[in-house]
Write a structure and sequence with these properties.
Number of domains: 2
CATH architecture of the largest domain: 3-Layer(aba) Sandwich
Bound molecules: nicotinamide-adenine-dinucleotide
Shape: elongated
Distance between the termini: 53 Å
CATH topology of the largest domain: Rossmann fold
Strand order of the largest sheet: 2-1-3-4-5
Strand content: 15-25%
Length: 173
């Protein structure tokens, strides 16, 4: 496949290395220095876009991919307040979009364990749950997308917790 890499930081570079090893090619590489190259014409020369940039730029980048009618995989975090808008645009334009707050296999196994544990502990009224996380120094968004996913999974299984905003929960009365 010919891949458009949107974001050429730590993740963009790691994805490029793996993609090349697997026999794919990079048709477009976008970073802060050449944002103007992220246009419909250039995107349409690729088969898929992979977006790992910044919370402030991700929505615009995704919408450009939908306009170009190119499938897009997104790993950028910190933008989920716009998820509804992005989903609607994708459906409206019959696009293809995959987002995960964390693509690592280990974390996805942890997600499944978290759901199982939350279901079990929901019945244990003498216990409560909280999340604490430590970030590396260059982290742009806090809480992380991974922590928000964990919180949403917990809320989904605990009958007496509800969502107040993207990550804070409250007990039912
Ligand atoms: N879903 C996952 O599994 C996962 C894993 C790691 C990181 N992330 C998230 O992915 C994002 C990127 O992470 P990273 O570690 O590569 O960060 P990074 O800071 O190393 O790289 C981000 C790159 O995006 C570029 N950029 C910023 N604005 C841009 C724009 N408008 N257009 C194009 N490029 C732009 C920056 O110049 C930088 O090179 C962050 O939101 C991070 O939280 C997700």
């Amino acid at each position: 496949m010919k891949i458009a890499l949107i974001g050429y930081g730590k993740m963009g570079k790691a994805i490029e290395e793996i993609a090349l090893q697997k026999g794919h090619t990079i048709g477009l590489k976008i970073d802060l220095g050449n944002i103007a190259d992220l246009n419909i014409q250039n995107l349409q020369k690729c088969d898929v876009a992979i977006e790992f940039t910044h919370p402030d730029s991700v929505v615009k980048n995704l919408l450009t991919c939908f306009d170009a009618n190119i499938p897009v995989v997104c790993g950028s975090t910190g933008w989920l307040q716009h998820l509804g808008e992005v989903k609607n645009k994708c459906i409206e334009l019959n696009g293809s979009f995959l987002y995960a707050s964390n693509f690592s296999i280990g974390v996805n196994i942890f997600f499944e364990l978290n759901k199982y544990l939350s279901k079990m502990m929901n019945r244990q009224k003498g216990y409560d749950v909280s999340i604490e996380e430590i970030h590396h120094t260059q982290k742009k968004d806090a809480p992380s997308g991974t922590a928000i996913s964990l919180a949403e999974q917990i809320i989904g299984k605990y009958t007496c917790k509800k969502k107040l905003d993207k990550y804070i929960t409250a007990e039912c009365k």
